[in-house]
Amino acid sequence: MSNYQGPATLVAGDSEIEVEATLSGSRAGAVQWGGSVQTGGTTADFFAAMEKDDVRIRLPDGREGAVAVTHTTIGSGRLRVSGSGAIPF
Question: pTM for the full model?
């Protein structure tokens, strides 16, 4: 089991937004990872970019992973994310 809690950046196309991430993953059998991110304040432009472009999460050391937003609570700034591919933490 791998865990990460700390700053990260969500990247969608040319748009970036700083977040606080709480992520966990398992390498037992199939690789699965995900968690939640808390934004300080999202903009409609960023949400529009997430709908059109691939979304990645970048950690402070430069490692990245592809994510899909699986749930949002409108107005909360909290997003649930599900990762695909190698665990970046």
Answer: 0.83
